[in-house]
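This part of the workshop introduces the protein records we will be handling. Getting from the letters to the tokens is the skill we practise here. The record below serves as our worked example for the rest of this section.

…
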Amino acid sequence: MNNRREYQGKQLRTELIKLRSDQSRTEGWPWQHPFTHIHASALHEAGHAVLAVALGRRLCRITILQNAIRGGAVDRERREDTAKEIVEEIFIAYAGYETAFLYGFETDDSCDRKRVTELTAKRHDLAAISEETARSYVRKALKTFRASIEDLAVALFSHGELTGEAATNLITDTLPRFGEPLKNLRRDIERLAACGESQDTCTKELRGFHRSHL
């Protein structure tokens, strides 16, 4: 099974490199890609991991090897003491499903939704943040981290499991290219975290966000 997975992973990597060599194919979203439904779990977990690293979380392990409970997991550092950290954790939770969805696949996010419910229960002042709004910001960020997500998904599919160090190194190889998107992501998070302090201001800003991203 491992040899078969590694062989399929090499084929996937070859197809991805070939598509990337044609710049016209990488403009806009969605674009032509080599992923199929068998890679959905790898994309899902890669989304969680990439956004976690982008937001300064330490990875311990990432796996897509199925067990009796779920198909994959990202073991990582969690921070949820402040409103800003809770919004960051909400973004990371939504990133799995949203990543797979951007590539045309639907994955089970019941555990992620439960995680978001637990997080918002810690700060009732964050109730002003709608799920639609949070997911919109997450999708915007994920599109700018495409190279990191794809490279990690390929490696994860090929090996089934990666150490936190290996996954982090792979992610940070491409993340430095996205300085401005990282700044935008942090600004979006700070804006949403401030919702609890001024719901009226937050509502106006979010309406403006949705108008500009239709």
Q: What stands out?
A: Confidence is low (pLDDT under 50) at residues 203-214. Strands lie at 59-63, 73-76, 161-163.
